[in-house]
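Quick start: what a row looks like.
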Amino acid sequence: MPRFLSAKPDARLIPLPWDQPLAQWPTKNLVALPRGISRHVVRFIKVGDEVYAAKEVNQEFALHEYRLLHDLVRLRTPAVEAVAVVSGRVDQNGEPLDSVLITKHLDFSLPYRALFSPGVRHDTVMRLLDAMVVLLARLHLLGFMWGDVSLSNILFRRDAGSFAAYLVDAETGELHDQLSDGQRAHDLDIARVNVFGDFCDLEAGGLLDESLDPLNLVETIDARYHELWNELTGIEEFSGSELHRIESRVRRLNALGFDVAELDIQTSPDGQRITIQPKVVDAGHHSRRLMRLTGLDTEENQARRLLNDLDTFRARTVQQNVDESVVAHEWLTECFEPVVNMVPAELSEKRDPAQIYHEVLDYRWYMSQRENREVPLTEAMQGYIKDVLRNLPDEVMSKAALVQVQQGDTRQLANPYDPSMGFADGEDDAPVHDPWEDTAKDVDVQSATTLDIDALRAKG
């Protein structure tokens, strides 16, 4: 009997066929979902209404990642939630099997490859990179060194007009009290190399627009990271007559979604110069405010958009002097809930409620401009369902037997439960030709055991 380590046990996981390698599990226990590339065997397991991601890995690594993911969630970092580690597995012949790390599937999340199709827009790629940079900066502020930064180890969720990034693989991570500049630089170097490989892979598959150069994209990551890090931690100096800049700095950080624990303020001996350095403690400034007022759990940009709509509702109903929590309750029952409750059940997997409300606000604005009148929310929602929502792909999970990783792709996957295996070959497909194989058979294996420096220099 295998051993289960879990802080939130799900008894429905116990009867699953843990005596079989994950790659050989029967499809009745699996669900087909798009996922990123992984060095390990990964499958999605469905028990009841819950979907879990299962990764087969060495026990030491599984326990390390399990505990690290728990620490990250405790620190309110965007990361998948660790559920259990299944160890002590043996097959039917008594041979030991690797342990399995089980994490909770992140609803409405997508691997980066699922967001790419031929002709993907430039701004979409930039928003993906921005989301990754914000995630990396948040992790570094916490003292987390990732050690394997790549687009393949991130899941993305739509966040109003942007994306929110979630860490999905912490196998190589380390949590410290504080990171040195060298540790951060090392993580950034790893990100540049890995992301360059990710984009070269997309480019080779014809999924990257010709105007996008992989090298320029990784240089963009470097520039945007340093710009954000300087805003979060940099020292700012100004004259004593510009005290308003202290509040401006805090407001800029809040606008980025970060809270400030304290400001280190120092003045020169003559009082003419002031130096400030913020201590940023956490991200999620707007999402926490929205949660406190309404109980809605959203991404940061979604929260900002919904709070703006709440402020508009407050002004339109002339309730500026009414307690904010009372107005928030009215907005929730009169605006938000009627809109999201209009979503037909068969379309509920298209977008999460906060994202739908954000998109309806956009739809209503364009509709009002076009018709030169203020369109009611419910009327805009009817048009949005008809014109937009019905034509969107599902983003919770695919109910089809085959999952297409790319939108609009009609090819069948070789294994719908393991998208990393690629597409099935057609009957008429020619075998893949590797030119390196032409000369491989001519290599003298005996002489290849030594390195002939003189011969290499002669060739040079």
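That is the whole record. DSSP finds twelve helices and 13 strands in the chain. The longest strand covers residues 273-283.
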